[in-house]
Amino acid sequence: MTYKEIYEESIEQPEKFWAEQADAIEWYNKPETILSKDENGYPLWYKDGELNICYLALDKHIQDGCGDQVAFIYDSPVTQTVKKYTFSEVKTEVAKLAGGMQSLGLKKGDTAIIYMPMIPQTAFAMLACARIGVIHSVVFGGFAPHELAIRIDDCKPRAIITASSGIEVDRLIAYKPLVDQAIELASHRPKKVIVFNRKLGARIPFKKYDVDYDALVYGSEETPCVPVNSNHPLYILYTSGTTGKPKGIVRDTGGYAVALKFSMKYIYNVKEGETFWAASDMGWAVGHSYILYAPLLNRNTTIIFEGKPIKTPDASTFWRIISEHKVGTMFTAPTAIRAIKKEDPDGTFIKQYDLSCLKNQFLAGERCDNATLEWYQQHIPIPVIDHWWQTESGWPMIANSLGIEKMPVKFGSATKAVCGYDIRIFNENGDELSANEEGLVVIKLPLPPGNMLGIWENEARFKASYFSKFDGYYLSGDGGYKDEDGYIFITGRTDDVINVAGHRLSTAEMEEVVASHRFVAECAVIGIQDDLKGQIPLALVVTKLDIAIEHYQLEQEIIKLIRQQIGAVTSLRNVVIVTRLPKTRSGKTLRKLLRNIADGAEFQIPSTIDDESIVEEIITALKKYKIGINNI
Ligand SMILES: CCC(=O)SCCNC(=O)CCNC(=O)[C@H](O)C(C)(C)COP(=O)(O)OP(=O)(O)OC[C@H]1O[C@@H](n2cnc3c(N)ncnc32)[C@H](O)[C@@H]1OP(=O)(O)O
């Protein structure tokens, strides 16, 4: 069947389509109700199905006689370690850890936060939670204690699972003191903190709530998988929104398992037994879906990479891993390729490795620029597939579905809607736009299986964020257009969320922190273009009257504050002092105007502006600090 036939069937007969796909996984109780609605009218998939995703990821493959296949390859250039774990080995450790967690009182429906670096124990912890129906919430290690505390107070974990340290290139980052600090800052008190000691010399302050990971596993019996309902939350994953507080995206179990299995076959075109590598972090949606669950569900070997595309030790690392571990399909963010391209523009390292095993390269996490795509294609002549999805969706929404039909690539487009996604382009009034007209990217309900169930304990925010603007449609927050062939081009966020090196961050959250500086009267944080990271934040601040502080000192203090409160991952490097911010007559800061000025894009001064002369002041300030592109 062609893409057009399969796609149309998925849209016209969603129940039939997804009932067939549900047969690709094993259920304890096969669902009879395929599509229904919850009490708020939001679509639910496989309401009466029962399964366990840890069973599907591990036990099933052992029962099928594949226990000796390698499940994980842990490749850590920062500790110079390569270690392989078979499905049987992983299952034993996970089942014992799960048993240990039960002995600590954790049970189905409890929540547990996982704050760990890129090591196998992170995956074991996630799978152990899934095994006993504990809802995990992995927090990216680059977030500071304050951010961790916000998540502790929101999802109220019974336990936190952490490790003694992470390694950032050559810096040892002690995690345990950060966890202790976060618990101090939070109102909620987790009962236990399970600590995996990596024995790398990091300080591990002892607290009464601590439990040693190794001792827990060693002293526990293996525990079987606990069946859960299809809509039992598998995890909560926080993502940035337009307000300061992150949104706890809740993922179901059954729909997610079906969607991931479907994606491995029909989008990524990956066969069971092959090696699949998503070079991301377990703390992001890519990590959950494509380092852990999808490859394991599909019985693929997956790589846990503790390193960076450059500097660990150099720009050859990706190519070494691909050739050494025979990676068939790879997934990374464009920013990683840009970093490699900058270090090795002629692709000298690429020529040193046999990359004949690599069939396809997928890119996502941020908009991919043509120069990066072309460079990759020139040096590694395999299909380079840009695809688009979000934390909310959990799996791709726009892609070149290679397992169905490979379509020609158009630069700048992630190709066409994936099966199940009825994607439209609307204007502000909810009218559908014609080909090549840019507008808001929306998706007609029902979203297919695997998409978020809601925002953790916040139905009102769930509705307001995604469904209140256009009744019956999911508002993605991205802008874009469709061409006459149905190819979709995503042009970027339409709100104040920015994407820094593939990390989705909220400028509103950064503004709250910048505004808390004792000398700042008011501020605006905007995302501006950056050659390497795609976007970086820029803070424009108005200082309080009669404040005598050197620009450099204020900048350093604000940068430090942001790193302490949110984390280094924000990459805030520049603070510009301005006398006023451009506002509408009703007092709203004109952030889009600021962005356009800084990016050197064409801009029109909105008629609602309070005082036009501020524009000149901003241009002068940006010139003074040499910030911005092109025309500054
Ligand atoms: C499709 C659905 C989705 O969008 S899911 C999200 C997909 N996004 C991704 O996969 C992210 C892709 N990006 C990356 O993997 C990294 O940015 C790559 C390309 C590897 C570059 O890493 P790096 O050189 O560290 O730059 P960065 O901008 O990520 O980091 C900025 C500063 O933050 C720090 N940082 C980063 N990670 C951690 C961590 N786990 N623990 C502690 N600190 C961390 C970095 O060290 C860096 O710090 P500094 O500013 O140099 O002091």
Automatic annotation (TrEMBL):
Superkingdom of origin: Bacteria
AMP-binding enzyme C-terminal domain span: 509-588
Gene Ontology cellular-component terms listed: intracellular organelle lumen
Domain Acetyl-coenzyme A synthetase N-terminal, chain residue ranges per copy: 3-56
Pfam families: ACAS_N, AMP-binding, AMP-binding_C
Domain AMP-dependent synthetase/ligase: 67-456
SUPFAM superfamilies: Acetyl-CoA synthetase-like
GO molecular function: propionate-CoA ligase activity
Record family assignment: Belongs to the ATP-dependent AMP-binding enzyme family.
Protein name: Propionyl-CoA synthetase
